[in-house]
Each structure stands twice: as structure tokens, then as C-alpha cells.
Amino acid sequence: MMTWLALLVLVVTDCTSTILMVKGVRDIGKFTIFPIHKLPKLIHRVVTDLRVVLGIFNMTIAFFMLIFLLLYADISFVWPATALTEPINMLSSKFILKERVTRLRWFSMVFIFLGVTLISIN
Amino acid sequence: MLIKSDQILLKNLILIGALVLLQVLGNISLSRGMRQIGKAITVTPDKLILLGMQTLSNPWVLLGIGIQIICLVLYMSAISRLDLSYVLPIMSSSYVLTTLFAWIILEEKIAPNRWIGSLLVSIGVMLAGLTSIKQSSFRGSSDDVNL
Q1: Domain residue spans in chain B?
Q2: Which residue of A has its CA nearest to B70?
Q3: CB pairs < 8 Å spanning A and B
Q4: Does A100 have pLDDT greater than 80?
Q5: Which among A59, A80, A120, B43 has most CB atoms closer than 10 A?
Q6: Which chain A residues contact residue B69 at CB under 8 A?
């Protein structure tokens, strides 16, 4: 029960984080490390963007949930189980981020989802 | 000699490849660290503090966290230049690789259904990559691809 509850929190916070960060980072512009002298300005823009900050906060919760889950189960179960975020993220890409998702991509997601489900079966 | 579009494609592939590999190594490192700490059957508030201290002082966990921070930077770079619906399917190969590395490095016992699942995930990832690799590589085809 504790495992699935932690997994639920992980999935929700991870999906929220993805959407917030994508929206924030895209408004900031391309995230590049080089040239180095432009990095401080870029970091400042990142840490002052509320969506990115909330995204990182959600990602942190998801990360600690992952660590917590590893107390209860093997990584070969835990990591594939986190793929429950994938179908939700794909829907978010389509309907929130308005990205074009081809039929074949949807089809590939079915494969990934089925595969992840099988991996997750104990 | 590579033309510009091929260079962009190559850089994007290297970026996502590095991201996936580091993600897997980070997972393995975290798992090894948490194994050393042991299984938590019940979690009470006082045990939680002790658990947190043990976790944050374990070298494998710290290494895993360090790797995950690098992954975060690479991830932000990837999603800022590529479609999320392209990045995420490729990143899902980390599920297969994590299972493989868990079997090899951590010597976890992997049931047949997990291996079959890994194969299905691989096929799905390959399909996603084949259909969208060109399209996504040219998104916003500016000169600013200098990670």
C-alpha cells in the first residue's frame, strides 16, 4: 500500500514538473551551457521563473519519492513503474503543449506502455 | 563531411544518449545506496529523521544525487530544443537499460515478464525514434545548438 501511494505521489509530481518546466524553459529560450560567460544570466532567468522553480520543486518531491520507494522494492521494478508518467506526459504534449503527435508515435507509446506494464508485474 | 543538419542531429543524439546513460547510472547508484541502508518495513516520524540522515550520508546515494543533478541540466537542455513527445519516448529506453544494469551490476533477479516487457519498450522506443528523429531535430533550426 505504501509503495503504491508513494508511486502515485511520484507520478503526479513528476508529470506536473514536466509540464511546468517545459513551459518555463521554452519561454526562457534555448538552454545552453556554452558560452560560459552567458551562464550566470541564464541561471538567473531560470531561478526567477516561477514555473521552472515550481517544476524543480515538484521534481524534487518526485525524486525523494523514488528514493523512498527504493527502500521497499528493487530498482528493476521501481524505475519501470515510474513510466506510468509516460502516457500522461504524451497526452500533456498533445493537449497542453499543443505539440504534433503522429499516429505512429501514439502506436509506439502503446508498445512502451504495454512493455512497462509487463515489467511492473511481479 | 557532415552537413549542418546532420551535425544538429548528431548533437541532439549525443545529448539524449548522455542523458539516458547518466539517468541509468544514477538509478543504479541510488539503488545500491538504499540497499545498504536496508528495507524499511514501518516508517515512523523519528525513524524518518534517522532514515533521512542515513540516506544523505551514504556515498552511493550522494553520487546518485550528483548524477541526477547533471541529468537535470541535460534534460532542460533537451526539452528546450526538442519536442517533449520526442525526448520522452527516447528517454524511456532508460527503463530497459536500468533493468539490464540492475541485473548485471546489482545482480537483481529479473523475471521473464520483465525481459519481455523490456523488449516491447525497446520496439516502442525504436518506432518513436524512427518516425520523428528528423522532424524534431530541425525544430527551430537556429545556430544555437551549442551544448
Answers
A1: 4-137
A2: A33
A3: 183
A4: no
A5: A80
A6: none
pTM of this structure: 0.72
DSSP B58-90: -HHHHHHHHHHHHHHHHHHHHHHHS-HHHHHHH
Write down the H helix ranges in A29-102. Answer: 39-47, 50-69, 75-81, 85-95
Dihedral in degrees, nearest 10, Cα atoms B74, B78, B80, B84: -130
DSSP tag of B105: T
Q: In A, residues 47-76, which contact B (CB 8 Å cutoff)?
A: 56, 59, 63, 66-67, 70-72, 74-76
A110 contacts on B by Cβ (under 8 Å):
124
Greatest CA separation for chain B: 62
From the DSSP assignment, how many helices (H) and strands (E) are in chain B? 6, 0
Residue type, position B51, single letter:
L
ipTM here:
0.72
Q: What whole-number distance in Å separates Cα of residue B88 and Cα of residue A21?
A: 14
